[in-house]
Amino acid sequence: MARLTLYGDPKSGNCLKVKWVLDLLSRPYDWVDVDVTRGEARTPRMLAINPAGQVPCVVLEDGRALAQSGAILLHLAEDSHLIPDDAYDRARMLEWMFWEQYSHEPYIAVRRFQRAFLNRPDAEIDPKLYERGSAALERLEAALQAGPYLVGDRISLADIALVAYTRVADEGGFDLAKYPCVAAWIVKVEADLGIGS
């Protein structure tokens, strides 16, 4: 019987989000390592699967491919407890997921990648990455003062999408000790997912 295949780089929070949802929902899959730092996402084989040359990408059991972490998460979690039943709460979940890709990941993940994987010193990294990443963490801190999760009283795709890079923000030079609600939320979401820092 065919199994879902997840193509991903274990250094990528976007790829780990998909892995965590598959694991949490006990859905069987095969993981294929794709090292983006070595250009493996842009090989002819990978471009045939995802012409955008990016991971994560999944090939579903029926052979259809799907890319972009948010789209994959929504597809995999359909009809699960990870998507709120209430229409407004679902919209709030999506609001956080869209915000993550536009106002969080481009700063926190990019700064982390430049420091941790390209070994660039802070002086060579655009200071706006730190400024905007800090602003994103401040927004999360304010939101999490209202409750343990971003939407409602249980984990949703919003938490999974945002914890992926937030939990390793220190690798980008962000001091998570400045954000106690964020730090507590990371511990809670990691426990829900069965992962550790």
Number of domains: 2
The chain-level structural class is: alpha+beta
SSE string, helices as H and strands as E: EHEHEEHHHHH
**What radius of gyration results from the CA coordinates?**
17 Å
Q: What distance separates the N and C termini?
A: 34 Å
The biggest sheet amounts to: 4 strands, mixed
Query: Average pLDDT value?
Result: 96
Give the proportion of residues in helices: 40-55%
Please report the number of helical segments. 7
Quickly name the level 1 CATH class of the largest domain.
Answer: Mainly Alpha
Can you name the CATH architecture of the largest domain?
Up-down Bundle
Beta-sheet strand percentage? Answer: 5-15%
Question: How many extended strands?
Answer: 4
Shape: globular
Strand order of the largest sheet: 2-1-3-4
Q: Which parts are unreliable, with pLDDT below 50 for 5 consecutive residues or more? A: none
CATH topology of the largest domain: Glutathione S-transferase Yfyf (Class Pi), Chain A, domain 2
What labels describe this entry?
single chain; 197 residues; alpha+beta; Glutaredoxin; Glutathione S-transferase Yfyf (Class Pi), Chain A, domain 2; 2 domains; 7 helices; 50% helix; 8% strand; globular; Glutathione S-transferase family protein; Glutathione_S-Trfase; Thioredoxin-like_sf; Glutathione-S-Trfase_C-like
Structure overview:
By secondary structure, this protein is α+β, with helices and mostly antiparallel strands. It folds into 2 domains: 4-76, Glutaredoxin (3-Layer(aba) Sandwich), CATH 3.40.30.10; 87-193, Glutathione S-transferase Yfyf (Class Pi), Chain A, domain 2 (Up-down Bundle). Helix content is 50%, strand content 8%. It has helices at residues 13-24, 44-49, 69-76, 87-117, 127-144, 157-166, 180-193; strands at residues 4-8, 29-33, 57-59, 65-67. Strands 2-1-3-4 form a 4-stranded mixed sheet, with helices on one face. Strand 3 (57-59) and strand 4 form a beta hairpin. Helix 4 (87-117) packs antiparallel against helix 5 and helix 5 (127-144) packs across helix 7. The N and C termini lie far apart (34 Å). Residues 2-84 form the GST N-terminal domain. InterPro entries: Glutathione-S-Trfase_C-like, Glutathione-S-Trfase_C_sf, Glutathione_S-Trfase, Glutathione_S-Trfase_N, GST_C, Thioredoxin-like_sf. This is Glutathione S-transferase family protein.
